[in-house]
Amino acid sequence: AWKKFSAKGFETKDEFEAEAVRHIETTLARSLFNCDEFAAYAGTALAFRDRLVIEWNKTQQRHTFADQKRVYYLSLEFLMGRALDNAMLNVGMKDIAKDGLADLGFRMEDVIAQERDAALGNGGLGRLAACFLDSLATLNYPAWGYALRYRYGIFRQEIVDGYQVEVPDYWLDFNPWEFPRHDVTVDVQFYGNVRKYQDQSGKQISVWENGEIVTAVAYDAPIPGNATKTTNNLRLWSSKASHGEFDFTKFNSGEYEQSVADQQRAETISAVLYPNDSLDRGKELRLKQQYFWCAASLFDIVRRFKKSKKAWKDFPNQVAIQLNDTHPTLAIPELQRILIDQEGLEWDEAWAIVQATFGYTNHTVLPEALEKWSVPLLQHLLPRHLQIIYDINLQFLQYVERNFPKDRDMLGRVSIIEESQPKMVRMAYLAVIGSHKVNGVAELHSDLIKTTIFKDFVKIYGPDKFTNVTNGITPRRWLHQANPRLSELIASKLGGFEYLNDLTTLHKLEAFVDDKEFRKEFQEIKYANKVRLSQYIKEKNGVAVNPAALFDIQVKRMHEYKRQQLNIFGVIHRYLEIKDMTPEEKKKVQPRVSIFGGKAAPGYWMAKTVIHLINQVGKVVNADKDVGDLLKVIFLEDYNVSKAEIIIPASDISEHISTAGTEASGTSNMKFVLNGGLIIGTCDGANIEITREVGEENIFLFGNLSEDVEDLRHAHYYEEFNLDPMLDRVFTAIREGVFGDAGQFSALVDGIVDHGDYYLVSDDFKSYVDTQRLIDEAYKKQDEWLTKTITSVSRMGFFSSDRCIDEYAEMIWNVEPVKPQTNG
Ligand code: 26Y
């Protein structure tokens, strides 16, 4: 499907070499005599970039000319990872480049590895946004992403003496994928005051004035679709001092230091990605980031709309804006402000446009992750927006009062303003009220939001405002790029690579489940991926692991609700069992490598304690001669997108073991199964739908169900607590200092024994250990295991982000693709 394009640039190996060398010598001004791997990367990237840019420009022209509704995906996070391999896949000349690089003395793999990850996100939400961009372009939707151009992405994690240490990620030293648009700027206002007056006709006019201005500068990155010429745009805003801010009078009057300080303060807005992915800390700078980004993006969207000279009522027919969680919720009062204060629309007319424009995706029900901003802070930073929020609330509450006159408590419950000290603005409620659709990210999660956090809103608006779009992943990156041999094997059976763009056709693979030759190759590929990860582990951790062992992997952000502690307690239990065994008993043990990876938010002390415990357990277990190859425990430093591409294809079992009802969806669960691994998981998030697709016999589910969580939590407080004896034994070992100073881990243990075990680790421990035992036995029957993995892969078609984007387009955005004329 991906044939080469006819655009200018290179067509042959020699032409590629000439282009790469030209870039190295001229664009980089480097001599070929010191052409290292990095220069080879730069030359290759620039050669491919030239080709992308041509299609990018054409696509933007085509979309303007087509004059159809566009999608704007507002996300504070885009966890893009590396771009070169994806660019080569989508331009379609990777083999030519590979030969060309070989001529120059380089291996493609090493060259690709020179690129730094674009890590502008924390975890699942940010990676989902990146998968969505890939699918939007691949499916030819006219769509833009909007975000911030952080100078520092998510921190780099180093493990020092078993502890997480955060190191800044300055990733912009060399970034060939971004194009600064110094001519595309927006002035964004903060602070100031609101002046009200009546014009000649008696109309109330509000003027927001005397504020501080910061300028947003656009940086664009091309997003190529796969097997199509469509190349969409990701626009990142960078903050800089406006000319007013960088005060030349100060400068000239000798206050040079002050004027530079002002400039730096402006640049601080887009300086750093906040590394929290759940606890909302209500920092002023974070609110500034959110408004800066919303204001710049909306100005840009409105500017583009106004060029079409259409009537305002057509705005929602031309523009769909999707809010990735509540982070961009200020876009709602901002659009209302533009329409009434600047464009002179009446409130009701403007509000109808706002509601028809926005859709809101919720990613969590955890109360501590729901954003709230204090009224005094908003009053100070965005006085006009606060007034508009109050007006939105007033209209809304009047509507509720009319429709539910008997429910007296309802008004207080659904008010956007929480009557606390200080008062708080509930961003999720504002997002629900200002959007025409609200969606969760997996079936269970979408049901849960309707019965918990948004229960009253279902009564108010009816159930149709709420919907589900189960998450998906792009098979281009998460199968073809991460696991090229498996992708090729599948293509050889399915008659080409077209399945990557219609993943439902994967089901045809099931016909080969008994094909001897196919099974052998499938198994060999998994083994080779495990060998590759083993080499990586040897290099990074200095531990030799046996690639024939069962690889058990849990990689994701460190969180109490995700329960890495349950996993490591299970590992300790396994270790203690092995220590008790006779040599005869040991022979029956299924060897296992337990692999962990993930970052903890820098201020999340409990999550950091779990990292420390995992590393301490690894230190003890990996050095224990009684254990040998039967158990190894590895913590992989600095888990990120490019490392995920190595880690995920190497799993036999991956762990998705959140307390039921806490993980909205999960997306790595999908990636692992698509790459021929099985899951141990709770009945939570997308695990439930994965089970429905692959069949109960092909997944290892355990633990309590979400409907029982409330009662179980209650029981911890009001009933006698009997600690499971196996877990008790694990705690005893920890307390005795088997894994180092016990004091370090006391909070972890006490949280379960004395403080209510909020995440129900003790309730699920036995079920978890029993299920791990089943897995050991199942893995020993390699033939049956292989059947399970092949069957599962062939049933994963539903989880492509292409399906997901088509659902958004149809149910929420009402947008159609714009097909390029030919895909020759
Ligand atoms: C408010 C701020 C502190 C904040 C920042 C980032 C809050 C949340 C986040 C990120 C949340 C996140 O990554 N959520 C994950 O979204 C995935 C995509 O929908 C889900 O698969 C996953 O279950 C959910 O935890």
Automatic annotation (TrEMBL):
The UniProt entry's GO biological process terms, in alphabetical order, are: glycogen catabolic process
Q: Which PROSITE patterns match?
A: PHOSPHORYLASE (PS00102)
What GO molecular function annotations does the UniProt record carry, in alphabetical order? glycogen phosphorylase activity; pyridoxal phosphate binding
Recorded hits in InterPro entries, A to Z, give:
Glycg_phsphrylas (IPR011833), Glyco_trans_35 (IPR000811), Pyridoxal_P_attach_site (IPR035090)
One Gene Ontology cellular component: cytoplasm
* Pfam families referenced in this protein's UniProt entry, alphabetically: Phosphorylase
Catalytic activity reported:
[(1->4)-alpha-D-glucosyl](n) + phosphate = [(1->4)-alpha-D-glucosyl](n-1) + alpha-D-glucose 1-phosphate
Q: Which family does it belong to?
A: Belongs to the glycogen phosphorylase family.
Q: What exactly does this protein do?
A: Allosteric enzyme that catalyzes the rate-limiting step in glycogen catabolism, the phosphorolytic cleavage of glycogen to produce glucose-1-phosphate, and plays a central role in maintaining cellular and organismal glucose homeostasis.
The protein's name is Alpha-1,4 glucan phosphorylase
Organism, scientific name: Cladosporium halotolerans
